[in-house]
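<derive_structure_tokens>
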Amino acid sequence: MLPPPSDNHHTFRLLAGLADPAPQCYGGTIGYADHLPVDSIRFNVQMSLIPATGRTFVNNQTITQTDAEPTLFGVRTDMQANVIPFELYTSWHDQLVAIAGVPNQDTLATIDWSPFLHLLPSIQYTIYRSDESDEVAARILLQPQDFIDVLPFGANVMLLPRTLVSRCSLGLNALKRVGIFFDYENSRIGFCEPI
């Protein structure tokens, strides 16, 4: 199991040999998703951009929830950023332009995001039990401050668009919100709210 950092443990830890992850999960509840029997763990996820509470208009444009088609995601423990579907990244970037006047990708890191964080959309990952099922195994909700790290000289934006050579993946900034249990024997991955 890979529990996220906590008050007691300030880094990720790998709990090896854990037969039952339930005691590590809030309320003993864990949701499982099947993963494909390929060289890496991949599971079915639908992403959504959720408008900031009370925000329905930005610069006279109506802001609504944006959903991407379900796609296969993996887990990346070697990078902070999440790699998301290109279409959803484009919608997210369009909202940045409307809210903060960000003209292009190169300027994302140079803007003072502090006044804008509460206006930006949240990102929700809905993880399905399998490719054929609409049963939800888990949901991960990231607030803007979870994927935009405001720094004294600008910001570190921890979202990247999927390209032809990169797969969609949950990076460390998403994994810090959820406990993950790798169940290779049963070809599944478990998600829970850690205690």
About this structure: DSSP finds three helices and 15 strands in the chain. The first helix runs from residue 86 to 100.
